[in-house]
Amino acid sequence: MLWPVTVAGVLLGSAVAGVPGGILGGVLGHALDRHWGLRRWSEVPAQLGRWLGLRPDFERVLFLCLGRMAKAHGRVTAEHLQLARELMQQYRLDEPQRLAAMADFNRGKLPATSVERQLRRLCRQQQGRNAELLDSCWRMGLVHGRPSAATRQLLERWAAIAGLGKAEQQRMQQRHQRRRSGSAAPVATGGGLQQAAAVLGVEQNAEPAQIKRAYRRLLSRHHPDKLMAAGASEDELAAAGEQVHRIQQAYEKLKRYRGFR
């Protein structure tokens, strides 16, 4: 195992201040390696991009957007905060990650925070998660029932950035409104790993490339925009929306299990 920042700290410190500088540089570098989870040089560019904001983390952008969405309601309520906590649990964030997510949520409420710039970068770099992010934003926007004019304006602008059509937005709105009213049971979040694999039609230990192909193929088959163009009814569109949500949840579960992006 090679700790890249540790090595860089030793070399830089030695060059500047000899042996004492090398020791100090190594200690500081090792602390950064452990903080960022770096174990090899190949991981440095991605971490540097995240640190500079050039490669934003999904969870960071998600909670920035959720904070902005909650603020668009007029004021942030206990219901907004409770949903934020539920989403932290859904993504299995540990305590340091929860604190970071709440800090991002609070930054998202500030007008000076460049939420949409981060959103654009994320949507370009992780296109497969665009619908997942917007779905959580719709959920936040509907915490108190019908979205306000400011909330809807944000959702429509962000959907355009994410490349989501009106049918997909309508599906998200209908699903979360039904969940709030209790007229339909909440959508299953994918169950265990075997169930997630069954949803995608792959083996639990399939190669990442095979899992990605299955995910994209199923998304294309059930996408509401495609079905709307084919003349599907409202009930068929709603059912397709539910299936897309199951597919996305199953894909995220397998992706976390296999450890790929």
Notes on the structure:
The protein is mainly alpha-helical and 261 residues long. It folds into three domains: 4-52, no CATH class; 58-181, TerB-like (Orthogonal Bundle), CATH 1.10.3680; 193-258, Orthogonal Bundle (Helix Hairpins), CATH 1.10.287.110. It contains 13 helices and no strands. The protein is globular.
Overall tally of domains = 3
Any idea of the CATH class of the largest domain? Answer: Mainly Alpha
Number of helices: 13
Determine the strand fraction and express it as a percent band: under 5%
Q: Spans of 5+ residues with little confidence (pLDDT < 50)?
A: 183-191
Give the helix/strand layout.
Elements: H1 4-36, H2 44-52, H3 58-72, H4 78-90, H5 95-108, H6 115-125, H7 130-141, H8 149-162, H9 166-181, H10 193-200, H11 208-222, H12 224-229, H13 234-258
